[in-house]
Backbone:
């Protein structure tokens, strides 16, 4: 080894020891007769001191080193002089007085500072990702990711799970996004697909009798990118036999609690995790992945609103819609009329961006019994105001927002306003982690364009046992045994109890308009497997990238992936995707057609 210790290891108890360190020059400070070098490796920083009077040759060599040079230093550990201790560093009580210094490799001037935690253009970071990964916060994130995955493996091993790898080259599957296709040289004109998830294979492993399977699975989806998506991503894939929904939820809840409490420095807000019916989550929060760190919940006030003199509310309810109200605690406190109007104008603009026709409001004065302001004040007489405020639990200084229209159209508006207000009022704390289970999803969604049912999760999700008769009479009312885990406003896991009987699976194929012959061609191997003694089974797939992003307090998953793609799904460092050589295309029987 070229080092005896790491740069984060030495303490006062090592005083007097001869040590050898190696790493990168974090900073070099030349003060004439003394040169100080902060030497960095993955484990931390150690201050190196070079005294010209004691070691002139070493001092001369140290004069030439620059930031990011790779060097090896030999020396003796000494306590730092009185008043020079750095309490912010684990190694801040000692220094190494160098007796030898070797430059292992010089370095060009970096494209951005490595030793400063400052904002750098993301394109530059992606182009020089190997330099970006040297920065302290990136190393912290990657190590956190490693620890999360290690905890997962240790936990599941103790629970009797077996880690099994499944193929990357597989068959195209209907998972809701476009597949990445891989042409076959051996079979001209045919293609493999990169898996969007190992869904079919993990179910076949249940048929094979492994009962408890998991995998840190690489998955691929050709879909438009955003902050919590990448074309290739990692999920914890799990499947269990002879389980019911509660078994899966309890195990995952215990796993997530352990990760937060034992691996991260985040604060877990609630245990057990709240469980929300999907329809209730949509009605109260406008989202099936609500951020539960704060309690801004919309209320259905249709019964009260129709007794007001505001015609828009009456028309909305008459046409089958609803009137929703949101109490914003302290939302109007301390605001004069001009400030309040400006706030409401901004909120109304956001509401319209998300499909609303308008936004109405009331504001309660800061003192009890004070003036009620707002566009709705004249439409609600005092008695009705009292009833409304009692229903909402409003207090002095609160702001009340109103929306009216079809329920489905209101959901995105409710969600957008709730998120925006939480940010304005600083209700979210990145140090807090709040999980919630979303259950009882509808099994199907009606596809108006195709005039057929679409599975709301995937086509292997089992209906609730008591809802199986509805498949023949009223499929839209059937619930699926699906469950999602949301965290801080993100969906981080989705799963279900699966169909394990061929006749039910074929019935689902028929309801979603999948031709029998097409179904047999795509899924014949699964349908046949279901005839050889398939146990009841279910599973879930938490997204590791999103989970680590939240544990690290980062704004997007690119910050916790070593070599991510950009928002345009490009690798700026390697220049991917790139053109193929003509010979490669010839071998694959492929011709590129130029876009007109």
Residues:
């Amino acid at each position: 080894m070229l080092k005896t210790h790491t740069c984060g290891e030495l303490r006062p108890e090592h005083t007097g020891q001869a040590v050898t360190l190696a790493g990168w020059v974090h900073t070099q400070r030349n003060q004439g007769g003394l040169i100080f070098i902060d030497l960095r490796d993955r484990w931390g920083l150690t201050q190196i001191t070079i005294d010209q009077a004691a070691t002139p040759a070493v001092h001369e060599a140290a004069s030439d080193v620059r930031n990011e040079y790779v060097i090896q230093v030999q020396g003796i550990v000494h306590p730092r002089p009185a008043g020079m201790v750095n309490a912010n560093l684990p190694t801040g009580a000692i220094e190494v007085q160098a007796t030898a210094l070797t430059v292992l490799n010089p370095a060009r001037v970096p494209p951005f500072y490595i030793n400063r935690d400052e904002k750098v253009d993301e394109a530059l970071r992606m182009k020089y990702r190997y330099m970006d990964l040297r920065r302290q916060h990136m190393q912290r994130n990657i190590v956190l990711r490693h620890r999360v995955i290690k905890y997962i493996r240790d936990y599941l091993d103790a629970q009797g799970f077996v880690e099994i790898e499944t193929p990357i080259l597989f068959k195209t599957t209907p998972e809701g996004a476009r597949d990445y296709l891989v042409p076959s040289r051996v079979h001209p004109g045919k293609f493999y697909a990169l898996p969007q998830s190992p869904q079919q294979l993990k179910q076949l492993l249940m048929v094979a009798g492994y009962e408890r399977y998991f995998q840190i699975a690489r998955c691929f989806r050709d879909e438009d990118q955003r902050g919590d998506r990448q074309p290739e991503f990692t999920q914890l894939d799990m499947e269990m036999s002879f389980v019911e929904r509660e078994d899966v939820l309890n195990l995952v809840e215990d796993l997530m609690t352990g990760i937060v409490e034992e691996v991260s420095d985040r604060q877990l807000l609630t245990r057990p995790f709240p469980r929300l019916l999907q329809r209730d989550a949509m009605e109260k929060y406008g989202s099936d992945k609500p951020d539960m760190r704060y309690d801004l919940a919309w209320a259905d006030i249709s019964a009260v609103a129709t007794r007001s003199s505001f015609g828009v509310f009456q028309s909305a309810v008459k046409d089958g819609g609803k009137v929703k109200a949101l109490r914003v605690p302290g939302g109007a406190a301390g605001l004069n009329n001009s400030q309040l109007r400006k706030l409401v104008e901004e909120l109304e603009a956001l509401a319209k961006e998300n499909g609303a026709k308008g936004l109405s409001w009331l504001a309660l004065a800061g003192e009890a019994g004070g003036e009620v302001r707002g566009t709705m004040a004249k439409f609600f007489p005092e008695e009705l105001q009292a009833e409304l405020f009692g229903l909402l639990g409003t207090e002095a200084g609160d702001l009340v927002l109103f929306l009216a229209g079809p329920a489905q159209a209101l959901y995105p508006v409710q969600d957008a306003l709730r998120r925006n207000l939480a940010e304005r009022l600083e209700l979210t704390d990145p140090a807090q982690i709040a999980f919630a289970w979303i259950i009882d999803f509808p099994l199907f969604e009606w596809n108006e364009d195709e005039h057929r049912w679409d599975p709301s999760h995937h086509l292997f999700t089992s209906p609730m046992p008591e809802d199986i008769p509805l498949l023949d009479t009223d499929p839209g009312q059937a619930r699926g045994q699906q469950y999602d885990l949301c965290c801080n406003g993100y969906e981080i896991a989705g799963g279900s109890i699966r169909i394990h009987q061929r006749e039910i699976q074929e019935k689902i194929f028929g309801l979603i308009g999948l031709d029998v012959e097409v179904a047999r061609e795509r899924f014949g191997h699964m349908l046949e497997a279901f005839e050889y003694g398939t146990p009841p089974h279910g599973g879930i797939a938490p997204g590791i990238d999103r989970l680590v992003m939240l544990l690290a307090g980062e704004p997007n998953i690119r910050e916790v992936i070593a070599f991510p793609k950009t928002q345009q799904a490009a690798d700026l460092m390697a220049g991917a995707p790139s053109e193929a050589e003509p010979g490669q295309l010839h071998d694959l029987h492929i011709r590129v057609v130029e876009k007109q």
Observations:
- The chain has three domains: 12-105, 139-273+436-566, 294-427.
- The mean pLDDT is 93.
- The two ends are 59 Å apart (CA to CA).
